Structure formats: C-alpha cells, structure tokens
Amino acid sequence: MKRISLTPVELEVLETAMIEFGAVVSFDQLRSLLDEDVQYSRIRISKLVKQGWLKRIKKGVFVISDLSTRGKLSISPNAIVNVLVEEAYISFEMALQYYGLYDQLLTNINSVALKQYKATVIDGYTYTFTKTQQRFFYGWDVQRIDGQLVKIASLEKALIDLIQLHRGRYSTDLVLEKLDTFRDDIDQEKLIDFVLKANLTTQRILGFLLDCVGMKSDRIYSAVENRRSVSSISNSENNMYNHKWKIYYDQHFEKYIH
User: Fold this and answer.
1) Predicted TM-score of the model (pTM)
2) CATH 1.20.1280.260: does it fit domain 8-64?
3) Is 257 helix (H, G, I), strand (E, B) or coil?
4) Of 38, 136, 149, 233, which is most buried by a Cβ count within 10 Å?
5) Where are the domains of the chain?
6) Can you give 119-144 as a three-state secondary structure string?
C-alpha cells in the first residue's frame, strides 16, 4: 500500500486521541475530536482505516497505528483481547509466554471464553476463543498492558487449561516440560488447588505428570483413587496403562516415569 501522509488535522486528531483516550478508541471519541457530523466523521474515519492509520478491531472500535510506522499496532496484541471479548482471559502458550516460560514466536492469541466466538485476524495475529463452562472460568488475574486492563490466566491455570481444553500428546508434553524446568516458578499449592477443581481426566493427567517430575500428588490421588472409570491422554497405538492413575498414556512418556 502506498504510504499516504496524514494531514495536519488528522495528525492532531490521532495524537490527541492517544493522549486523551489511549491507543484504543471508539467512533464517538474520534468524532468528538473531529467535531463533525456523523456522516462526515464516518467518511474521515473510513479513510484513516483504508490508509492504515487506524485498525478496526470490531464495530465502532479502533486501535491507532504507530504514527511513526503506519500499519503496525501501537500497543501489544495482548491488549486487544478484552476489547474483542470482555468475558475472556488469555491462556495456553500465550499466557506462558507472558510469564517468560515460552519463547517461540506466537501469532495465535488463544483465550478462554464463556461463549463461542469466531476467530478474528488483526495485524497478522489470529485471536481465537476456546469455550469453557462457568465453573472452570477462574484462575486469571487482571494485568494492565499498554493502558488496557487484560485478563490473563495465572501460570498454574494456564498449565491446567492446556490439559483440560487442549488435551493431547503435544500439550501434555509441553506441561510436563514446564513442570520439570520451571518448578521453582510454579506455586505448587495453587496448582493443586486448581487441579482439584478440574475434571476427572485433567486431575488424573496432572497427577501422573507430577509423579513423573517428582512433585507431590497426594491430594490429587486422594480425590481420584476410588473412581472406577479410566481416562487417556490421547489416542495412540502405543498406549501404556498406569494403574495408579487409571490412565492410558502414549509410550513417549515412558522415559519420564521414575
């Protein structure tokens, strides 16, 4: 896209908006600065969107681009999540990255929400929302990121969400790695408290993983030892069976068992 310079009036409007409202602005806020009628304001704002100075993130809400490098968001991609969906919190790998436990490039910002929402792509980032039940919608803290209040899962809840909501060999292996490598960063009592609120399969998998890395699992075992059903981490032709946790696990995890 050919770079089109801002007029002095447009530059003043965007700079004033950043000062008064922050990087996330509404149509009405921009209109108040343009001091024009609705139709003219809509034309002016649409022009700024087409030129890349504004990024529309949902109807009537925009993010002001970095005025020095048009087209790039002026705030962290994480700051947009709760503008898109208020009742949601960032979790999974993105939450781990926020706490410094995941260093791979992420372009998918996956959050947990109480309803199903369509994925949204903004500035090269895909925002997806995994639906959960009200009783599992807990374990997040409110953080301020680039002037926006954002709900982010605690480290312990992000690990549990990876198992309960993204169960499979990859997520289980990832959680096992984090438990083993960053055990001193994990609040083990909080983790156990959260596990005891999770579903049965998640309790069994986390108990199994805690045993693998030599962390205490007694409280979890007391909660599940009398349950008769069996669970599995993933479907595999190489599944093994752990009698203590009544769980089938991929042979891949055999090397971790002490």
Assistant:
1) 0.84
2) no
3) coil
4) 233
5) 8-64, 77-153, 166-256
6) CEEECCEEEEEEECCHHHCCCEEEEE
